[in-house]
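Batch manifest, entry 17 of 40.
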Amino acid sequence: MSDEGARSMYFSDDALKQLADGYAAFGGKLNALLEKYILLELKNRRAREFAQQGFPRRLKVMARCITNVFEAIPPDRTELPSRDELTDATINIQSFIFNVFGAIDNLAWIWMAENGQKRADGTPIRDGYVGLGPDNTAVRGTLSQELQDYLKTLDDWFRYLTGLRHALAHRIPLYIPPYVIEEKDEAAYRDFEAKMAEAGRNGDFKEYDRLSAEQLRLGRFRPWIQHSFQENAKPLVFHAQMLADFNTVDEMALKMLGEYVSLANGGFTRLA
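Output type: structure tokens
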């Protein structure tokens, strides 16, 4: 079988190199960030637990999810993945999304526990309002102006992440299509469908299987993941998105680290 057209790579050579470089770099970032948080000196016991246990556990799960996805479906993959490979990759991407969301919340909880779960005016911030996203204005208001400005640049990213997390938890879970059919092959695909239906009606299952295999050759794999097809959701290129999300968490965690250190050095007024 010649699959030159049907099995061409999705990524360009330049894109593959960028993915390879990003994949090679994230392990070093992981270890450096883990060390900083595990050794972070905090006064509050709960803050220490979030910094030394909660956040690092989520980071390590995120990193393992990236590794598992890249091994199950490498970016330079040309053949269609098996059902098990698709399922394994989907499980890891779903876990990754939950832990990215949780890791960001852990960063907020470190801050709240160490600085006091109160607004600048001393009124309490309820647990349900703890986070770093655009809706968590009470928590953002207790941070330095520099960090508030930085987080504002990520508002769209927070909305993307929250949308995926909520869809995954409450509505339609993330899904990797086994293949797509390009417009130029749609007529041939439908023709196979008609012939397969006829073979099934005639009880010719050997012919049905042959036609099904021929039809499958029209499929092109695309490394996309999506939840709903009816909620204006757009497919995401999951290899690149996972690396980008990890890098965003890494960058945000390093900036939050500056807040914790500033607090320890008297840069903020401790509320509790």
